[in-house]
Every structure is written in structure tokens, then in C-alpha cells.
């Protein structure tokens, strides 16, 4: 087994811990968290049935039949002491373990192209192979979809469906599922990252394009998000930007700690990136680095300084004039003001370099809530400039 193959196996531990932990947590203690969800769903649905009966939508007989079916489902899914539940124990807890067994196979196809050239041709399991190994997955997908039709705001169920489709090798369906979840619930970090991973797998294991843009959107909101940092490092590794990969993974390691298997895994990833860096020609001898760098100096108008707390969030982003969508962004704390920030193509959230934009609108906003969206009471400054010109930006306007 090559060094990189060993590294891949170790890296999977981090991916599984970050992505699949909610599944294992839900299956522990006979699925205690899932039981809570099922009980809550039972209460909500039984209340709906009573209301429908009182409104005359259901007859007494229809109400009794529907309530009986609901109680039966609750007994099967929750009560660990009943004979029915005992028979269904494998049915109630199989999904995390099936996904855990399938994800390393699909993840190998995702990670191996980053370094092991003799294994680039490795293919993930087809949907048919996944179904033959876990026939109940099709049933789970159907049940989750039906549940989500009735409960479109259930984040856990959207995540479970997306992970299951990924495990089955149905990456485009998984990406669409995460997209539907984002429309139904909003841009939750877990949904953005889930879509990024599914799109990367569907595109032949490449993080470029929309996947890395989604990851960067998460990092704008939460610059220390471990999974986003990990995927950002994977993208940098894929692009041959080993210093950036090392930087990202060191940030992950700072959160995970140096001890234990996960710390060792990140150490191995960093060591592999360093080994690649030592064997890589210098930037002057290789492909040119990004040439567009936007230097931004940010300060606050003196008359507004007393409105700011050190823990307030500062968003600095560039966008096309007339557009609301950032093409590059960075997040800081107000306690760091005045700021000197460099936005370059590494921070780009667009498919083209910053230098391709003839004009950019630079916005610096201080948010009390930590939300990227502007809210009343936030303060901001805006200036328009050419990408290659340094910018001095004063935050001087209160959003009403």
C-alpha cells in the first residue's frame, strides 16, 4: 500500500467523523434522538387528525383507522420493548451502518484523484451495486421523500436523504435534493456543504466550480467551520496549492486537537501536502500564481465608533455593480478594525478571476447578528473601483 493510499484511509476517518457522526449519534441508545423526532411527529399528526375530524374532513371511522395506523407506526419505530419493535430493530438502525460502509467506497473515488495517479481510474459503486448490497436503501429513500413532502422544513430528514443518495452513487439526485432543501429551509451550512460534496462527486471528483463556491459561502459565514476548512484544503490540494492546503488543515487541526486518531489523520494530510510542496517547482518556474489582488483598507467613521462592539462581525466583500451576489469575501471581527484586507482569486466565489471584472463594488458591513444579509441597525461603507487599484473604505452609513 502506497503512502498516499494510507493517507486516504486516514483521511476518511475525518470525513466519516464530520459527515456521518449525526447518523451514528441518531442510532446510539436505540436511536434516542430519532425516537424523540418520531414522538414529536406522532403528536403533531395526531393533533392534525383530531382537527380534521372536528372540522368534518374525516369521519369517526376514518379518524379511528388513521389514528390506529399512526399508533402502530409509533410502536414500531420507538418502543424498544415491544415484540414488533424488536423485530424491526435492524430496520430502525440499519441506515447509519449501511451508509458508513458505503461512504468509504464512494469517498475513495472522491479523494484518490488528489494524489494517487495509479488509482485515478477507481470507480465508485453504481446505484445498482449499492442497491444489491443494501436493498432497504430504496425503501428508505421513498419513505424519506414522502416524509419531506409533508414536513419540508425537517433539516435532519433532508440531510439523511442527501447522504443516502450519495452513498448509493446517485450524486446528481443528491445534489438536487440538497438544492431543494436549501429552497425549503434556507442556506444552512450543512446543506451547502452537502450539495458541494454531491456536485463534486457528480463532476468526476472535482471541487472546482460550484462546489468550492459553496464551501466559500460557508466560510464567509463561519471562517472556522471544520468541514468547510477541510474541503477548502482539499480544493487547494487538488489545484496544487499545497501551502494553502497546509494552512487550511492546520486550522482544522487546531480545532480537533493534536491527540487521537483525527489529529493523526490531519497530521498525515499536512505531511503529504508538505511532501508534495518539496517536490513541486517554485512558483516562478511553474504556473503563474493569481495576479489580481485587491488591497482594501477599512476604517469606521469616528461618529459611529461608539455603536460597535469588539465581537461584532465585519464582512468585506466585492461584487459586480448592480448585483447582490459577492464574487469574493472575507469575514473578520470588529475588534480588529481598522483592517487591511487582501481579496484575490483564492477568495473568489465566481468562476472567473477578479481581474476579469472591469469594475467592482466593495462593501464593508458591520453586523450585530453575524448574518451576511443586511439588517436594520447594521452599518456599512461602499465604494466602486477597478480590481487592480488599492481601496480605502470608510464604514459610515447606518442601514435603516
Main beta-sheet annotation: 5 strands, antiparallel
The average pLDDT is 72
Q: What form results from the Cα inertia axes?
A: globular
Q: What is the number of helices? A: 13
Number of strands: 8
Q: Strand share of the residues? A: 5-15%
* Class inferred from helices and paired strands: alpha+beta
Order of helices and strands: HHHHHHHHHHHHHEEEEEEEE
Widest beta sheet: strand line-up: 3-2-5-6-8
Rg over alpha carbons: 25 Å
GO biological process, one term: cytochrome complex assembly
Organism: Thiohalomonas denitrificans
Pfam family, one: Ig_CycH
Subcellular location: Cell envelope
Task: Describe what you observe in this structure.
The chain crosses the membrane at residues 94-114. The chain is of the alpha+beta class. The protein folds into 2 domains: 3-206, no CATH class; 293-398, Immunoglobulin-like (Sandwich). The chain contains 13 helices and 8 strands. The chain has helices at 3-55, 60-77, 83-87, 89-111, 127-133, 136-150, 155-167, 171-185, 189-202, 210-221, 226-238, 242-256, 260-278; strands spanning 293-300, 313-319, 326-333, 339-344, 360-367, 379-385, 391-395, 397-398. The strands form 2 sheets. The chain has a 5-stranded antiparallel β-sheet with strand order 3-2-5-6-8, covered by helices on one side. α9 (189-202) runs antiparallel to α10 (210-221) and α11 (226-238) runs antiparallel to α12 (242-256). The protein starts with a helix and ends with a strand.
Amino acid at each position: 500500500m502506497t503512502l498516499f493510499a494510507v493517507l486516504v484511509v486516514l483521511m476518511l476517518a475525518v470525513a466519516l467523523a464530520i459527515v456521518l457522526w449525526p447518523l451514528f449519534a441518531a442510532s446510539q441508545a436505540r436511536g434516542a434522538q430519532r425516537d424523540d423526532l418520531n414522538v414529536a411527529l406522532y403528536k403533531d399528526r395526531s393533533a392534525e387528525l383530531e382537527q380534521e375530524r372536528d372540522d368534518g374532513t374525516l369521519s369517526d371511522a376514518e379518524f379511528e383507522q388513521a389514528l390506529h395506523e399512526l399508533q402502530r407506526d409509533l410502536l414500531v419505530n420507538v418502543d424498544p420493548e415491544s415484540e414488533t419493535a424488536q423485530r424491526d430493530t435492524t430496520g430502525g438502525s440499519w441506515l447509519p451502518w449501511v451508509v458508513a460502509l458505503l461512504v468509504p467506497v464512494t469517498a475513495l473515488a472522491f479523494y484518490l484523484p488528489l494524489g494517487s495517479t495509479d488509482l485515478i481510474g477507481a470507480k465508485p459503486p453504481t446505484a445498482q451495486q449499492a442497491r444489491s448490497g443494501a436493498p432497504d436503501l430504496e425503501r428508505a429513500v421513498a419513505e424519506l421523500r414522502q416524509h419531506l413532502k409533508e414536513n419540508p422544513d425537517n433539516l435532519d430528514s433532508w440531510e439523511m436523504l442527501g447522504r443516502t443518495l450519495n452513498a448509493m452513487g446517485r450524486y446528481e439526485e443528491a445534489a438536487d435534493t440538497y438544492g431543494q432543501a436549501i429552497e425549503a429551509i434556507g442556506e444552512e451550512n450543512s446543506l451547502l456543504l452537502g450539495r458541494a460534496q454531491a456536485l463534486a462527486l457528480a463532476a468526476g471528483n472535482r471541487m472546482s466550480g460550484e462546489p468550492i463556491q459553496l464551501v466559500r459561502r460557508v466560510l464567509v459565514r463561519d471562517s472556522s467551520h471544520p468541514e468547510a476548512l477541510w474541503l477548502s484544503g482539499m480544493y487547494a490540494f487538488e489545484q496544487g496549492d499545497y501551502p494553502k492546503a497546509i494552512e487550511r488543515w492546520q486550522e482544522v487541526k487546531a480545532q480537533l486537537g493534536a491527540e487521537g486518531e483525527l489529529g493523526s489523520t490531519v497530521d498525515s494530510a499536512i505531511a503529504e501536502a508538505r511532501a508534495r510542496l518539496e517536490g513541486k517547482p517554485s512558483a516562478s518556474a511553474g504556473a503563474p500564481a493569481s495576479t489580481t489582488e485587491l488591497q482594501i483598507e477599512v476604517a469606521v467613521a469616528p461618529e459611529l465608533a461608539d455603536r460597535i462592539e469588539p465581537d461584532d462581525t465585519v464582512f468585506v466583500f466585492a461584487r459586480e455593480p448592480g448585483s447582490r451576489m459577492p464574487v469574493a469575501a472575507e469575514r473578520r471581527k470588529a475588534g480588529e478594525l481598522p483592517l487591511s484586507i487582501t481579496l484575490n482569486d483564492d477568495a473568489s466565489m465566481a468562476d472567473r478571476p477578479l481581474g476579469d471584472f472591469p469594475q467592482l463594488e466593495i462593501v464593508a458591513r458591520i453586523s450585530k447578528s453575524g448574518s451576511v444579509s443586511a439588517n436594520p441597525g447594521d452599518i456599512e461603507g461602499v465604494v466602486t473601483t477597478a480590481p487592480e487599484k488599492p481601496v480605502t473604505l470608510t464604514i459610515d452609513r447606518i442601514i435603516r
